[in-house]
């Protein structure tokens, strides 16, 4: 799994995977990292039910399914040293969902497909507003024919400002970082 190439992911103590859906990368990371506490955050009840069954079937004791939106999860605030997301939302939106959940010094790892310079600039601007700093965009090749696979890494350098998270739906409706 390419996520294991990233040192902060390998050494995570508490990891949240936003929009866990079918369990990638969250459930996979929980299985690969049995000492890491993994919260699989999924707002859709049907997907959460699937994840609950998958966690039980795989006997992954270090994973818990959290059926809520990231913006509506006060127990998750400043609780994670790593937050991951894959195919969740535009980059500035994912940054806004993740920033309040990270501890200072924590890492955001966002799996993305083909690069979009406009989205990347907006994501960097949103990160700056929320206390994160882009570290790198790493090309990943999980299998030989994979072409457009990138991992966007950001570090939380300061506390997230008051007022975040905004109420559910606002990050998508009025994304930060717009030019």
Description:
By secondary structure, the protein is α/β, with parallel strands linked by helices. The protein has one domain (2-173): Vaccinia Virus protein VP39 (Rossmann fold), CATH 3.40.50.150. The chain is 28% helix and 26% strand. It has a seven-stranded mixed beta sheet, with helices on both faces. Strand 4 (80-86), helix 4 and strand 5 (102-112) form a beta-alpha-beta unit. Helix 4 (91-98) packs parallel to helix 5 (117-130). The protein is globular.
Brief digest:
The protein has 179 residues and is of the alpha/beta class. The protein has helices spanning 7-10, 26-32, 45-57, 91-98, 117-130, 170-173, and strands at residues 14-18, 37-41, 63-66, 80-86, 102-112, 132-139, 150-156. The termini are far apart.
Q: The CATH topology, please?
A: Rossmann fold
Kindly estimate the percentage of residues that lie in beta strands according to DSSP. Answer: 25-35%
CATH architecture label = 3-Layer(aba) Sandwich
| Low-confidence sequence ranges | none
Q: Tell me the series of helices and strands, N- to C-terminal.
A: HEHEHEEHEHEEH
Q: What percent of the residues sit in helical stretches (DSSP H or I)?
A: 25-40%
CATH homologous superfamily designation: Vaccinia Virus protein VP39
Q: Specify the biggest β-sheet.
A: 7 strands, mixed
Please tell me the overall pLDDT.
95
């Amino acid at each position: 799994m390419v996520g294991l190439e990233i040192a902060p992911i390998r050494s995570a103590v508490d990891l949240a995977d936003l929009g866990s859906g079918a369990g990638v990368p969250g459930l996979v990371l929980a299985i690969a990292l049995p000492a890491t506490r993994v919260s699989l955050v999924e707002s859709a009840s049907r997907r959460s039910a699937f994840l609950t069954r998958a966690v039980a079937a795989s006997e992954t004791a270090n994973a818990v399914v959290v059926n809520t939106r990231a913006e509506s999860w006060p127990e998750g605030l400043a609780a994670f040293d790593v937050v991951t997301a894959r195919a969740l939302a535009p980059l500035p939106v994912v940054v806004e969902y993740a920033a309040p959940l990270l501890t200072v010094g924590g890492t955001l790892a966002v799996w993305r497909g083909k690069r979009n310079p406009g989205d990347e600039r907006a994501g960097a601007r949103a990160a700056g507003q929320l206390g994160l700093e882009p570290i790198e965009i790493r090309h990943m090749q999980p299998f030989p024919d994979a072409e457009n696979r990138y991992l966007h890494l950001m570090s939380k350098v300061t506390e997230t400002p008051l007022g975040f998270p905004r109420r559910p739906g606002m990050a998508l409706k009025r994304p930060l970082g717009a030019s």
